[in-house]
Amino acid sequence: MKHRKTHAFLSAVAIVWLLPFIYTLYTSLRPYAETAEHGYASVAGTLTFDNYSAAWTSAELPHFYLNSLIVTAPAIVLTLLLSSCVAFAAARLRWRLNLALLVLFTAGNLLPQQVIITPLYRLFLEIPLPGFMSSSGTLYDSYWGIIAIHVAFQSGFCVFVLSNYMKTIPTELTEAATVDGASLWRQYRQIVMPLCRPPLAALATLLFTWIYNDFFWAQVLMQSGDKRPITSAIVGLQGQFFTDNNLIAAASLLAALPTLVVFFALQRHFTGGLTLGATKG
Asked: In this predicted structure, what is the pLDDT of residue 241?
């Protein structure tokens, strides 16, 4: 009886969680003229994919998919690389400031990103970049600036997760490697990192979702509309006096497809990473 109640409760929560997605999908398949006449809560008389083809062409989604990839892929690689180096130093090396270093990176997650937007905006206007890296000559309105922001704000969480996982790896492995003459870099690259594949896959999935779905930083720190990621491109579908919500619903679902693809592709590794992180230690 208790299990039935639990299943019923979880099923109800799942349905409530899926309702916004179902309604968005339903709206995206309806012509705007029909919803304008009968309302969005009415029963559909016609379901078509016209809104998807219109969103694909009018919003130039392939171009903005590429923009999102240009920002997301390097940000994930740099975040995991730098975070794993810091986590290795904090978890596997014995020195006075390793705990303080871990606390410093973890505390960075407690700072709301929006509170530093004014000094950060002024800083981006002052930091120079070569012309081939930024058309503005500064970090402002450049892909590198957005990448740097994501690396800075996501590194704290990744360091926290990776350092906790690295502490569960037996120290005898690295001690034996040290006796055999392996350098710290070799221990990191050939011993510790291969064992960290599950948490790295889990973090890569989370990072892709967070960075790909970011809307705030691109709006604030990018002036050129053709450089912005796909989440900002959807805003271009809104008119000053008229907004086709059916079209925006279709564009939103198309924009969400890459996150679903990445999640299902890495689902096994993602689940394994979370499970190992929860049971070890």
From this structure: 58
